[in-house]
Write a structure and sequence with these properties.
With 98 residues, the protein is mainly alpha-helical. The chain is built from three helices and no strands. It is elongated, with a radius of gyration of 17 Å. The termini are far apart.
């Protein structure tokens, strides 16, 4: 494993561990998800550059578009949750109340 691959896999793993550990606040979970998507975007961009082909060139842009959509939906859910429940604590949310 090259140092570059190790760095990206470590960044993704830290984001995944952050989602697993810091799930008490919705905002911290969303930030960890964004970190995971950023590490995937950079890894995919480096992979495309190493291949030297134009076939996979649009793949990082598609991933970036999906990441932006995911961030928009996540922030909309955060605002809606904060307005209805008064906080972003995930323990205060109950699926049966909604």
């Amino acid at each position: 494993m090259t140092p570059t691959q190790f760095a990206f896999s470590t960044a993704f793993t830290l984001g995944l561990a952050g989602v697993a550990i810091h799930r008490s606040h919705l905002l911290s979970a969303l930030l960890c998800l964004e970190g995971m998507m950023l590490s995937l975007y950079i890894a995919l961009s480096v992979w495309v550059l190493q291949l030297n082909t134009t076939i996979f060139s649009p793949a990082p842009m598609v991933l970036l578009a999906f990441s932006a959509c995911e961030a928009g939906v996540g922030l909309a859910l955060l605002v809606a949750t904060a307005r209805t429940h008064g906080t972003d604590h995930t323990q205060s949310m109950n699926i049966l109340k909604c």
